[in-house]
Amino acid sequence: MSNIPENLKYAESHEWVHDEGDGTVTIGISDHAQELLGDLVFVELPETGTQLKAGDECAVVESVKAASDVYSPLDGEVIETNEALADSPEVINEAPYDNWIFKLKLSNPVQLDELLDAAAYASMVEAEDH
Amino acid sequence: MENPVEHKTILNQTHRDLGARMVPFGGWDMPVHYGSQIEEHHAVRCDAGMFDICHMTAVDIRGSAARTFLRHLLANDVGKLKDQGKALYSCMLKENGCVIDDLIIYFMNDDWYRMVVNAATTEKDIAWMGRHAEGLDVQIQPRRDLGMIAVQGPNAREKSLLLLPEDLRETAERLTPFSAASNGEWFVGRTGYTGEDGFEIMLPEDQVVALWKALTQAGIRPCGLGARDTLRLEAGMNLYGADMDEDTSPLESGLAWTVALSDLNRDFIGRSALVTQKAGGRLPRFTGVLLEGKGVLRNQQKLYDGEQEVGEITSGGFSPTLERAIGLARISADAGENLSVDMRGRKLPVTLVKPPFVRNGKSCL
Questions:
Q1: Closest partner CB to A39 (pick from B38, B298, B344)
Q2: Is-above-0.90 flag for pTM?
Q3: Beta strands in A32-117 (DSSP E)
Q4: pLDDT (tens digit, 9 = 90+) per residue, B56-110?
Q5: Which of B91, B92, B99, B218 is most exposed, with the fewest beta carbons within 10 Å of its own?
Q6: Which residues 294-333 of B have a C-beta within 8 angstroms of A?
Q7: CB contact under 8 A, A64 and B226
Q8: Nearest to B37 among A35, A39, A67 (CB)
Q9: What does the mean pLDDT of chain B come to?
Q10: Is A42–B38 a contact, with Cβ atoms under 8 angstroms apart?
């Protein structure tokens, strides 16, 4: 079973969101997503300063199996990216919730309420598996 | 959508018990990896790994006309096989020179050859062979009663030898590359699809699970189809359905070396089409490709010479040994040397190289 921490919010496209409480969020991909992808070999990061709308493609994670888009779960500006992923993308496989991909300064914080909580994401993942 | 999965190998539950991620492949429910495809890949390059290849089909060709039949059926010439047990790689072609399947054929004795064909193509292969065997003293026997395990890697033979039946062990130990021996229903070929040394072992299906478990105990790592694909790609070996198919000939798929045209009296199926194709010249070039920089080459990505589309990646992927993207590609004869690949709308430079990329654990670049 995949690991789904209680303290995070989730998008249907398998990103996790950590609310930093100061109008910014940290975003990565879920354990379920990394498991589906298999060994990651490359991560293409967004540029800092990019303005994103919820649902925009903003990063690419490539595994031995496939390339997969990462979507921004929320509206906002990219304020930081995890440069360490360029050299060691595999850390996402090892610890998907410790190894974030990018941080956003939110332009529409109420959108946070539209994301899935851990229980809702867990039942979505379970439904997908069957 | 994937086709419905109709078939399971005898090892299906064993794979599940080992925590394999299962995927549909050619109508079969097969393991793609058991945790990490890259670690499985390295196990084969550096030590020993094994693959469930029970989905592939062994087909015995028996009868006094077996050799005559096969010299007509196959693009490579079984007449080259003089020593018992010797193996030959060949394509089986349509009249128009395009590829029905690629296969390995072992010469067992004058009226017995054994062929191994791909899983997804088995039914059409057998139907095709049956049609061409009509009126000849040839029996075509798919051996669905046999299972197959490939053990591959520098230590694979040593680690597996003791698990072979005693009366086959010594012969197996002395096998030269690309040859096989059998004893009763057991069969061992020093062949594979990884670019490493190793065996492909056939045995009665009801003994497969026990052998798999014993091989695991002997330190041979179970590997899925994911690693099998990156290993064969590094080794520069073609994959049927990706690098060649019913719309391409061996001459445009890097397989001219498997087409035996020298015996002018041997009229094999597809010969005249290939001779015409060859005489026409300007055949597409089949080549290895390296991506410069980061990213992963994927099947069917388009290649460009400037703004001109000149070909495509037929098989692409990430090479765990070289830690970079590699691929096989078919490009038009008039394409230049400085090409780029379209990767999600961006053109990235590639370098053309002669495959293989990796053999026997070492980079060939």
A1: B38
A2: yes
A3: 40-44, 51-52, 57-63, 67-71, 76-81, 102-106
A4: 999 999 999 999 999 999 999 999 999 999 999 999 999 999 999 999 999 999 9
A5: B218
A6: 294-296, 298, 317-318, 320
A7: yes
A8: A39
A9: 96
A10: no
Rounded Cα gap, residues B38 and A89, in angstroms: 13
ipTM: 0.83
Residue B141 to residue A109: CA distance in whole angstroms? 68
Closest listed residue to residue B50, CA positions, set B129, B163, B134, B184? B163
Q: How is residue B325 written in tokens?
A: 């993207």
* Whether B31 contacts B22, CB under 8 Å: yes
Q: Burial level of B309, CB count in 10 A (0-12/13-18/19+)?
A: middle
How many angstroms separate the CA atoms of B36 and B39, rounded?
Answer: 5
Cα B221 to chain centroid distance, Å, stands at 20
In one-letter notation, the amino acid at residue B127 is A
The tokens of A60 are what?
């690419």
- The helix (H) or strand (E) run that includes residue B113 is strand B112-117
Q: Which residues contact B70 (CB under 8 A, 6 or more apart)?
A: B61, B78, B105, B113
| Contact by Cβ (8 Å): A105, A77 | yes
List CB contacts (< 8 A) between B348 and chain A. Answer: none
Q: Which fold has domain A11-124?
A: OB fold (Dihydrolipoamide Acetyltransferase, E2P) (2.40.50)
